[in-house]
Every structure is written in structure tokens, then in C-alpha cells.
Amino acid sequence: MPLYIKDDATAQLVAKLAKLRGVPKQDAVKLAVQDALDRAAEAVPLRNRFAALRKAHRLPPATGKVADKAFFDELSGEV
Fold this sequence. Notes:
elongated; 4 helices; about 0% strand; about 65% helix; mainly alpha; about 80 residues; single chain
């Protein structure tokens, strides 16, 4: 099934990609579309990425200690 590109700017972009990759224009279109589909399939919303990170790396339970300047000074040996 043929695909006709009637937009000059798009045709120029396809020609530029074909020349850059050293492939025919048909393959350049196929590569570009496949790359776009792969990126779309791999795209995970930031909310979901953070949820996965929070699930994989849970925070430790609260100790009840107060983390103030004196606490951090003691940790670093600056008493």
C-alpha cells in the first residue's frame, strides 16, 4: 500500500533522515515511525515511576529522634 507525502517540509525531513542513515526514503519513514512507537510504548508517567521507586525502596520506620543541628553535628563529629 503506497504512502504519498504531499507536504514538502515532511518530504525534506524524510530525505534528510534517509541520507543521514544511508537508507532509502521508505526505510527512513519506517525507522522514524518505529522509533516513535517504541518511545511511546516505553513512556511511563512520572507518577507511575515514582510509585514504583517508592514501592521498591521503602523508607525505614520512624525512630522518634529529632534531627536538628546538634544531631547532625554529633553525626559528623563536630561536638
